[in-house]
Amino acid sequence: MPRHSAASPIYTALARLANFNSGRRVLLASRKTSSSSARSSAKTRPFLCLALFRILVVVTAVFLFPPAIMSSSSSSSSAAAASVPFQSPRKVVKKVLSLSQSEGQGATVRRSIGGHEVRNLDPFLLLDEFSVSKPAGFPDHPHRGFETVTYMLDGVFTHQDFSGHTGTIRTGDVQWMTAGRGIVHSEMPAADGVQKGLQLWINLASKDKMIEPRYQELESKDISQAEKHGVKVRIIAGEAFGVRSPVYTRTPTMYMDFTMQPGSQLHQPIPEGWNAFVYIIEGEGVFGREGAAPASAHHCLVLGAGDGLSVWKRSGAPLRFVLAAGQPLNELVVQQGPFVMNSRAQIKKAMEDYYYGRNGFEKASQWSST
Fold it and tell me: Keyword Nucleus: yes or no (predicted)?
């Protein structure tokens, strides 16, 4: 609830009333006890009349025009609450520009999480913004020990794996793949022109690294959405504006795509203790604190501790970004390419299992994508 400060018009008026009433009581008491009360009364009568007149003016202002005074105080308090809605707002502690690099077979990615400057951000292992045109892509390759989340920004991608699972994701669609004990698959463009998207890698706890693979696939129309005060959000995982995604996150995660119109602001709660980052897809905005310098497209912003993120979009073209946050696993991360485990011995075993076709990779040697 907004608090009224001591400088509020209402509180100032009440203070003046109290002061004037106190002065009046002193004058009256003085008139009763002083031997020269008549002369004092005569001399002070003009001042007393002036004081009473001032009291009348203040009382009239307070009681005849309360809506205007209340509105001024309430607006001021609301503005203050909107600018700092969190007890411990999250600030940007690291800003990284994601540069283009080659990946897969002729594909180009901008890697933020998982690059040289941010090796990982528990539980997140990697974030790539990919741009791919035929015949480039990501042909047959394995995974073990984590999840991949592919979110199409523009275009069409097809997916095949060695268990016979196939699928196509289009603009706005999501594929949430739990690799678990092992998957070999391909991800290739399925339309002419440049296909664009994001792929996020989320680590699995040691107890979940060898579970059976599974998929959660959502078409764009099935992704939870909400809009409020010039801010639109697509909720891939977690909750925003009172709307929750149906996606099950084995590692507790929130993942959202925000679009902000000029003049809007966002205050999104994030569970305390979770690690979080922002990746800007297009436009620019102010993140973390109102006086910060704007951040623009292809920047990854690592957020510090706190209970929520504030964003201001002041002018210009709309701002679009994703916010990802997750509960840290606090486990040792040992990664070798597409294998993510908890020890070197486990990595060695994963590579042997893939090479010899065992412990989840039995179909690897007999399969290839079409």
Answer: yes
